[in-house]
TrEMBL record:
Keywords: Hydrolase. Pfam families: M20_dimer, Peptidase_M20. NCBIfam families: aa-his-dipept. The keyword Endoplasmic reticulum does not apply. This is Aminoacyl-histidine dipeptidase. PANTHER family: CYTOSOL NON-SPECIFIC DIPEPTIDASE. The keyword Metal-binding does not apply. InterPro entries: Peptidase_M20, Peptidase_M20_dimer, Peptidase_M20C.
């Protein structure tokens, strides 16, 4: 398996990616990958530092003849999203990612691949290690915790970097040059509820919604993908009155930046309704499957008889929960009026936990317009507070305002046309890139983002195009050769 990946071209990049993917690197637990990167830089004899929050910076002098060019910051993040299929046995804290080749794609066995942003990291590593690639003076910035709060970028202090140009290698379409991105904020509702004893004449079921496509809650929010938390809530609303359904537990979704793929709910229904309920769930599941056949062909909805829980939610609390989740906006909220096809504002209802008298609802709200972000976050806050929950707004980070007159943009556009004989798409994205945050302490740095084609990021369907990585590598090397003089 490892040998198959290491034989791919460009070998320099894929070998570094294989090395990196052997190191567990979950967000908030980057100690091992930080040590890995520190050892890498020091073994090359390059100036290598780790700042107070854990970002790693490796500096490399310009190659001969390039000393008069502007210093370039090459930037990618070390952490990766950890998601796996429900039936996959895998420990992200101890195991390296198991990769394989599938035609033009590199995939992982039942887990996220880590190409976001591991391929950017691997590319920078290959350049740092090289002895035959022309380049200006380089400052490689490897940030931490991009996926769960961007605390690495937020914690990077001014004065550590001297570069005039920053190349962020974290975009996921190889024909795009990114010049702007959305900001975001976490909206988290927490509450307590009264429980009551379940009745002995009831039947208990474990309802499951699984097999959804999932994906990046920014880059793929416009695709109409099914959200397991919203689908589960719609099912529970539909059945609560008709079958006297009572909720004992809900466990739906996972990471805030991943569209939820799975949800389970432990429920009871009155004894006289047991047979009719099971059939109705099956029928309803088939109808929903037809609705989402194009976007989520693997969707499965089922209700399996299970052991009776001792406690269920009190009726009033259950009604408040279902109404709040029904009213809370999920998906695209507004499209940009200034950039055609760009999602301006959205929300992802990422996580729903209900158990033992406590509940939590976690959302990630994004917008390229600060007022739009505040408006939607405030709307969600009102919905959840009306249900009696405490709402916390946290992890606020800014967007990155596009600069269509950027000098480095002109370089990237001209090199793209020269190499590939077509115009690139100059875009802003709805994902959260670190450029906006980094620009707060480095406002004079000219920033741009690009990368190879990666599909299904933040889901076990994540895959990286081999031919696109070849294109991206060629493009990156030509950009480094074309950096303007100071």
């Amino acid at each position: 398996m490892g040998k198959e990946i290491r034989e791919l071209e460009p070998k320099r990049v894929w070998n570094k990616f294989a090395d990196l993917n052997a190191v567990p690197r979950p967000s908030k637990k980057e100690e091992r990958v930080i040590e890995f990167m520190m050892d890498f830089g020091k073994n090359l004899g390059l100036k290598t530092i780790v700042d107070e929050v854990g970002n790693v910076i490796i500096k490399k002098p310009a190659t001969k003849g390039m000393e008069d060019r502007k210093t370039v910051i090459l930037q990618s993040h070390l952490d990766m999203v950890h998601q796996k299929n429900n039936d996959t046995e895998f420990d992200f804290d101890t195991q390296g990612i198991q990769m394989y080749v599938d035609g033009d794609w590199v995939r992982a066995k039942g887990t996220t691949l880590g190409a976001d942003n591991g391929l950017g990291v691997a590319t920078i590593m290959a350049i740092l290690e090289s002895k035959d690639i022309p380049h200006p003076a380089l400052e490689a910035l490897f940030t931490i915790d991009e996926e769960t709060g961007m605390t690495g970028a937020k914690g990077l202090k001014g004065g550590l970097l001297e570069g005039a140009i920053l190349l962020n290698l974290d975009t996921e379409e190889d024909d795009e040059i990114d010049i702007g991105c959305a900001g975001g904020i976490d909206v988290t509702a927490k509450g307590n509820y009264r429980e009551e004893n379940s009745t002995q004449d009831s039947g208990a079921f474990l309802i499951s919604v699984k097999g959804l496509s999932g994906g990046h809650s920014g880059m793929e929010i416009h695709k109409g993908l099914g959200n397991a938390n919203k689908l589960m809530n719609a099912l529970l609303v539909k059945a609560s009155d008709q079958y006297n359904l009572k909720i004992a537990e809900i466990n739906g979704g996972g990471l805030r930046n991943a569209i939820p793929r799975e949800s389970t709910a432990l429920v009871t229904v009155s004894g006289s309704n047991v047979k009719a309920f099971a059939q109705d769930i099956s029928d309803w599941g088939q109808a929903v499957k037809k609705e989402f056949f194009t976007t989520d062909p693997g969707l499965k909805i089922a209700a399996q008889p299970t052991e009776m829980p001792a406690k269920v939610m009190e009726a009033k609390a259950q009604k408040s929960l279902l109404q709040a989740l029904e009213a809370a906006h999920n998906g695209v909220f507004a499209m940009s009026a200034s950039m055609e096809g760009l999602v301006e504002t959205s929300n992802n209802i990422a996580r729903v936990e209900v158990k033992g008298g406590g509940l939590k609802i976690a959302c990630l709200t994004r917008s390229s317009v600060e007022e739009g972000k505040k408006e939607l976050a405030s709307s969600l806050q009102s919905v959840f507070e009306s249900a009696g929950y405490e709402v916390v707004l946290s992890g606020d980070y800014p967007g990155w305002n596009p600069n269509p007159d950027s000098d480095i943009l002109k370089v990237l556009q001209s090199k793209y046309v020269e190499l590939f004989k077509e115009q690139p798409n100059v875009v802003a994205c709805h994902a959260g890139l670190e450029c906006g945050i980094l620009g707060q302490n480095y406002p004079e740095v000219d920033m741009i983002s690009f990368g190879p084609t990666i599909l299904g990021a933040h889901s076990p369907d994540e895959r990286a195009s081999i031919s696109s990585v070849q294109k991206f590598w060629k493009y990156t090397l030509h950009i480094l050769e074309s950096i303007p003089t100071s």
